[in-house]
Design goal:
Blueprint (H helix, E strand, L loop, with lengths): L4 E6 L2 H12 L4 E4 L2 E5 L4 E6 L20 E5 L3 H8 L5 E2 L4 E2 L4 E7 L5 E7 L4 H6 L3
Parallel strand pairs: 1-4, 5-9
Antiparallel strand pairs: 2-3, 3-4, 6-8, 7-8, 8-9
């Protein structure tokens, strides 16, 4: 089995796509007005409108209601990204911080309130966790 993607359900695909294009520096692939993807070599961040899950009825995911998932991107330099993001309309949760497990991390929120983490391994052990596949 291989992890493929995570999908965020949003009430405003255009707004969230535009935000993630700015912070990642990547252009989303738009399939319809209701669905877009940011593909990377490690997996895909997909964005879908509430219409894409409407058939699930009362059990459908609710947009802007995430309180448990953090979307994480590996970057080369967290501090450089922080300086770049400060020029954008980004709601920061913390400034660059070195975590006890060896990653330098920067947390911020997207327009729907989803937490986004830009991180880089900085301890000698941290890069090995990225390469470990079981």
């Amino acid at each position: 089995m291989q992890f493929a993607s995570i999908r965020i359900i949003t009430g405003n695909v255009d707004r969230v796509v535009e935000f993630h294009e700015k912070v990642t520096g990547r252009t989303a692939k738009r399939f319809t007005d209701d669905f877009a993807e940011f593909r990377t070599s490690a997996g895909t961040l997909a964005l879908g409108s509430v219409r894409t899950v409407a058939a699930l009825g009362a059990r459908a995911p609710r947009p802007a209601a995430n309180e448990s998932v953090i979307i994480e991107f590996l970057v080369d330099d967290v501090d450089r990204e922080y300086d770049r993001l400060r020029t954008l309309a980004v709601e920061f949760v913390n400034e660059p911080t070195t975590q006890p497990w060896g990653n330098r991390s920067l947390l911020f929120r997207d327009p729907d309130g989803n937490l986004v983490n830009f991180f880089a391994p900085v301890s000698p052990e941290a890069p090995q966790r990225l390469l470990a596949v079981e």
